[in-house]
Each structure stands twice: as structure tokens, then as C-alpha cells.
Amino acid sequence: MFKRAAAQAATRIRAPPCARGFSVSALRLANRAVVYSSPGDPTSVLSVLTYPDLPPPSPSSLNVRFICSPVNPADINVVEGIYPAKPVHTDELAQGHKLSDAVYLGGNEGLAEITEVGAGVEGFAKGDWVVMAGQQLGTWSSARSLKAADVIKVSKTVSRVNGSTLTVNPPTAYNMLHDFVDLQEGDWVLQNGANSAVGQMVIQIAAQRGFKTLNFVRNREDLETLKTQLKTLGATEVFTYDDLKERSLRDRVKQLTSGKQIQLFLNCVGGDATTQMTKLLGADAHIVSYGAMSKRPLTLPTSLFIFKNLKSHGFWQTRWYAQKTRQEREELMQKLVAMKLKEPEHEIVTIPAGDSDEQATKRVRGIIESLAQGQYGKKVLLSIEQPT
Amino acid sequence: MFKRAAAQAATRIRAPPCARGFSVSALRLANRAVVYSSPGDPTSVLSVLTYPDLPPPSPSSLNVRFICSPVNPADINVVEGIYPAKPVHTDELAQGHKLSDAVYLGGNEGLAEITEVGAGVEGFAKGDWVVMAGQQLGTWSSARSLKAADVIKVSKTVSRVNGSTLTVNPPTAYNMLHDFVDLQEGDWVLQNGANSAVGQMVIQIAAQRGFKTLNFVRNREDLETLKTQLKTLGATEVFTYDDLKERSLRDRVKQLTSGKQIQLFLNCVGGDATTQMTKLLGADAHIVSYGAMSKRPLTLPTSLFIFKNLKSHGFWQTRWYAQKTRQEREELMQKLVAMKLKEPEHEIVTIPAGDSDEQATKRVRGIIESLAQGQYGKKVLLSIEQPT
Fold this sequence. Notes:
By secondary structure, the first copy, chain A, is α/β, with parallel strands linked by helices. Chain A has helices spanning 4-9, 42-45, 73-80, 160-164, 169-178, 197-209, 223-233, 249-256, 271-277, 302-307, 317-323, 326-338, 357-372; strands at residues 31-36, 47-51, 61-71, 89-94, 97-105, 111-117, 129-132, 143-147, 151-154, 188-191, 212-217, 237-240, 264-267, 286-289, 298-300, 311-314, 346-351, 379-384. The first copy, chain A, is built from 13 helices and 18 strands. In chain A, helix 5 packs across helix 6. At the A-B interface, strand 15, helix 10 and strand 16 of A face strand 15, helix 10 and strand 16 of B.
């Protein structure tokens, strides 16, 4: 699919390495997107493609300009073709201007500002901020034309960072805390990967709701610093997986919880430590898994299910969106904005207007490579400027 | 606790190896029970104890004579002290006649005939047949005095074998088929250990309800005979765990089910084969575990929970009884009797009236030993005659 010679022949268009360009020339090339022709290693397949100005939105649609769009781990898996959610595949980026090859659009989450409202769209105005209500809408773009049904308006009181990271991690944390166990103020929640992006949201949301959190993290040199950070967020107690080897741990936890049974365990790790952690649960507890950072499966003694009545579920925010009404989705976004959650640690990486597509492509692939090597250690948010 | 010398001194009483006898002598020694002084290896700790005639039942109670009482695998675990349900511990077998040491009573399940009805008991008459509504009531006895609330009347149309095995395996199968997924006629159920006692009940009950069963068993020399037996019971299809290695299996299953998604998986095995079997499940399926015959835990990829929305539960009939009303329990027993299920393969072992307690003890321990060595290959039902 990579036809550099053909691409270079399209002189008026900045040639994307993965698509041959447009069937018309002499357009105002005003927008950009991170695209790929076929799934694969993102450091090889992702390209930045410059494309014409969006035409006015069609009925029931809106044109938006993206403010910030995060690069989430799942986004990488989508590009690799190993994630169950599938990206947009299109040969039209600016309506009516066909690409010679269809491309996939990267990016699932983002904050955007409405630039133009189509006929028959109610409840939205130019200048409003929106987040995505639909999945995999190609948010790694400078602009997009989207169905009004696919976006949700958010208050402009939200920060750019919180707005652009509002639809995946915070609702995952919120829903896992509410959809499985009817927790009451003072009830305990057990979680591992507690310093992950979702884990930190769990801590904050639980604290706001009056739930207590028993958090587990990996041991590390600066453990006390991390414990302090998590406690500042609202964590009730922080342990390490090494503590699971201590025979006294169950007694310590029993003392801490005043013997109150723990009914909810949020798991994003898997493997041995997770199995060990289930011993801290009370009867009839629920383990809800949303990740497997250890890359190990979930191994649980059958007796836990039979005699302690443990129930094991998974949580996937994408499924939640698919199953809920628009009103429920809007209400949740409003609740999360109102919680004024602490911004995740982040770096905003700008794709500058003056970059050529080759330069921009190199920059995007470099970001992915650094992420893969764990060089950021924080969330990367793309800010894709309109090309000049 | 084993005080043979003291026991031998109690001349008028047949000395049980585990209890010193009664505090009164010159009683009519009319009953027998399998008892133990402390939990442990059943081939060492179980003893047969002869004890006096039951007095007339106290108010709200009944006297019963046991017809047949199975030795279930869980009963052995109770004697060993490794099962969550705890046995009766008493120093009174015939009310008012205290044992010098308290003993545990063996046996959880059984069919009994009412011999005498206490004051204030309604709905029961002498000669009625009853099964146990309560747990761990000491059914390895010739007779017992029980609270009317602890028994459920069953129709005398039930066979002795089906009546004595009515409260554990058939309701486990029935409830697992009904409590997790709202199966409709033509829906499929996946199960392993399909030739186990519960597995065979699942096959029969599913067939009567119009559900189709996809059954897995271990490979063996007489596999075709077993397949025919299970299909005669109502199994729709039978595979072996070896078939899981065939890449074509998923396609075969898809063809068999006409692509209908399998929503319920009943598991009593665990380990690798069980993990493999989950690949045959559809989205939103439930895996319900009621045993772990492989002695391996349940290991499931986290992605199954997150993306396929698999839910993993356990089922324990003891918990079901604890959570349900008497009316629900009675209705279930009536339904199961009306289903006229095929009797489990069994051998009725009589503890003859003429045995001394030593002889009877030896016999009981021998049964347990043969069971442990897998020499029966079928269910053993105790029939404990009144000593002469």
C-alpha cells in the first residue's frame, strides 16, 4: 500500500506515505490527520496526511476543530489491529474529495471545539466544546466532520487536559465503582495498579463518594513519595505486592477495615499478585478486571467461586457506551466534569503547522516509539495544528 | 479422644472407638450412627456407635428412620474438616441420654421415613417420606429426631435411590441451568465432567427443558460406549478434552449450533482444558463452577472478561438452600421428583443389624477406603439397619 513514487507525483499535495492523495488538486489544504493504510506496527504504518478544508457540515452533523487528543495504550492496539474496537475506514476526509486509497483514522478520545453546525442539529452552537460519544472517530486530527449524535457537549469550565481525557479513564473508574456493588459511604474498595491513570481516578472518585481504598502498587525506590502522592489524591492506604508475602497482612487489613468485608476488587494486573489479593476479599465479593498489565491471565481457586461466592467480571467502557442511552452518557460526563478531578500527568505534544507531512509523520512515529520504550511515564496529548 | 480402655469398661454398651458411651446403662440400644470425635482421615476417625431408642419427639420435631443415605465426596471432606459446612456436634443422640463425649455426626443427604410426629407439627404424618431441608444433619444414622423445619416431604412415588440422592446433585444441576442465564428452548449449554453425577443430571434436566448440551469428557478406551450412554440420557453432543487440540473444533461446534452463541458453561474440572473450552463461548456468557476435579484453579485470559464480557461465578447448593424460602425449596424438590430422573449408578451397602460396633466400624471404614481408591465408580448408599 506504500506507494511513495505515486505519492510524490501528486505535486500539489503534501504526499502522505500511505495514501496517494486526492482525486482533485488545487484545494486549500487546511487539515491534517494521523492515518494508516493497514494495521501494523504504529512506528511503521502511521502517517500524517494533509487534506482539504472541510466543506460545510451535512445535515445532523457538525464540524469540529480538535484541541487535544490523547494517545492511549488501547489506541496503539487499535493501530496494531489487535483490539476488538475497529477504527474508521474512509476514502473521504473532506466530504466529496475522495482519497485515491481509503485510510484508517487514528485516535479515539479528544476534546474539540465546534466550528460549524449543520442543518437540523439542536443543542449545539459554534464555539461549544465537545467530547466523543462514539468510539474510534479519528480524533488524531486537526478537524473532523462528525454526526451530532457522536459528540457530547461539555462545560468550558473543564481544563483542556481533563476535557480531552474525559471519556475513557474517568468513566471507567466511576462505572466500576458503581455498576457491580452498591457501595455505601465507608465501604472499602481493593485495587491494584493503583498509580495507573484509571487507578488514580478510582482513588479520587472513591474519596469524593466516601468510599475507602486499599491500594496496591509495585515496590520501588521512591515508594514513600508515591504513597504520599496517592494519599494526597485520597487513597486510604497503599501497600505493595511484596506486602502480600507477609503473613501478617490479612490481620493488618482486618484491623484497618475494622473487620468490614471488602466487596469490590478492581484489577488491571492479573497473575500471581492478583490471585493473592483475592484472599483479602469478603464473601460475595466482585472482582472487576479492566486490564492485564502483567500480561498474565487471571488465575483463581475454584473454591473462591463456590464457597465464598466470588464473582468475576470484566469492564470495558466501550461496551458501557454501547449499552447506555445518550442521556445516561451525557449525565456521566457532567458528573465527571463537576468532580474537578486532578489532571493526569501529561505532556502536550504539538504537531506544528509548519511541519511537512514527512516531518509530522516522523514526529508522530517518534512519539509512539518513546511511549513504547516507556520514556514518557505520563499521558501524551496530541495537539495537531492546521497546516500552513 | 480415643479412649478404648474406658470404652471397654462400659459393658452394657457396645463400645464405640471414639466415644465412651452413655451416662446411663440398661437402655434398649436400638439405633446406630456413624460418628467421629474429631475431624481427620475418615478411615481412622469414623466409628459406628450404637445408642438408645429415641424418646418421643419434642414439640416441632419428628422422629425418622433412615432408608438410604449416600456417601458423597463432600461428606468425606466434611469428616476431614476441610469443607466449609460443619457437621452436627452433640453429646445427645437419644434426647436426655448424654454421651460422655460429644461426637460429630456424619452424613448430609438421605431419605427417611417418619416414625413419630411431635406436638405442633403440621403437614407430616407417620409413614411419610422426607428428605433433608437442612444441611449436615447426620444422615448416616439408622434414626434421628429432627426439627420439622429441617425436612421436606417427598412423594413416595420416588425411588429409594432417587429419594436419597435428591437434595444435592439434581438441584445443583437444575439451579445452575436456571439461575444464571434465562435459557430458551433450543439454547446450548456447555459442560465438562459430563459423566459426573451432576453432569448426568444436567444432561437429563436440560433435555427435559429443551436445552441442548455440548458435553466434554476425558478420553478413554470405551469412549463410544460412554458417548452412547450420555446420548441415551439426552446429551446432544459429546466431545473429549483431546478434541480441544483440534483446530477444526470451533468450526464443528459452530456448525453444530448453527452459529448460535453458547451462553452457559458449567464447570467442575478447572485447569487447561477448562480454559480452552471458554473459546467455545459466545459474548456475555457465564461460566458457573461447582467443582475442581483437576485440582487446578480456574485460569482465564483477562481479555475474555473485558471484551467478551464473560462472567465467572460459583454455585453451591448449600448456599442456595440458605438463601431460599421453605416454599421454594419444597417446590424444587417436587419438580425434581416429577422429572423422574434416571437413578445414578449406585451400590447400596447395608450395615447389618447383627454387626457389632467394631464390625460395623470396620465395614464403614472399608467403604471409605474403597471409595478413596476409586473402587466403586458409582455412588455408595448406606443402609444402616437397627442393631439387634
